UniProtKB/TrEMBL annotation:
Cited Gene3D superfamilies: Lipid/polyisoprenoid-binding, YceI-like (2.40.128.110)
InterPro entries found in the cross-reference section: Lipid/polyisoprenoid-bd_YceI, TTHA0802/YceI-like_sf
Entry protein name: Polyisoprenoid-binding protein YceI
UniProt xrefs under Pfam families: YceI
Residue ranges of domain Lipid/polyisoprenoid-binding YceI-like in the record: 8-177
Organism whose genome encodes this protein: Mucilaginibacter gossypii
Length: 180
């Protein structure tokens, strides 16, 4: 993409959220959020086809509504936030599949493991806000296996139940602001 002709969009953190869900004891789901993240989108056209997307999450901003669990997730047994403070995503393709749907492919890095992932994207549309800024909204969803990224901690109860599932569901609602 020729950066001199590209339009840059940046994440509006006040109107965006990054959520994940994982099975607990195989019978229920625990949800969490990352409260601090940033990213940008570069595009050559108005329909976002072939946009380049860079995104990062601050591990220390994890919030599962339970402080002890959050601290465990930040520890070396899971994310090892001291050594690897960010999760990073860099797109390799952004392909329109119908009027409001895209397929987003890219490289996801958690800890020191980088793997290709494919995510589904729904374009919510674009509009001007009260200040004349152009905004674009997207809902991104997908699933990854935590063990593929070195998140291998396992716990088993005395009855043999697995404490944390391997599959992590991602649900990311992002609003971008077009830069002048």
């Amino acid at each position: 993409m020729a950066t001199e002709t590209a339009t840059k969009w940046v994440i509006d953190p006040m109107h965006s959220e990054v959520q994940f869900k994982v099975k607990h004891l195989v019978i229920s789901t625990v949800s969490g959020f990352f409260k601090s993240f940033n990213g940008e989108l570069l595009t050559d056209n108005d329909d976002f086809e072939n946009a380049e997307i860079d995104f990062s999450l601050d591990i220390n901003s994890i919030d599962t509504n339970q402080t002890q669990r959050d601290e465990h997730l930040k520890s070396a047994e899971f994310f090892d936030a001291e050594k690897y403070p960010q999760i990073v995503f860099k797109s390799t393709s952004f392909t329109k599949t119908d009027d409001e749907e895209y397929e987003l492919k890219g490289n996801l890095t958690i800890k020191d493991q980088t793997k290709p992932v494919t995510l589904d994207v729904e374009f919510g549309g674009s509009a001007a806000d009260f200040y004349g800024n152009t905004k674009a909204g997207f809902e991104i969803s997908g699933k990854i296996n935590r063990k593929d990224f070195g998140l291998t901690w396992d716990g088993v109860t005395e009855a043999g139940s697995i404490v944390v599932g391997e599959d992590i569901k991602l649900l990311i609602n992002i609003q971008f602001t077009k830069q002048a």
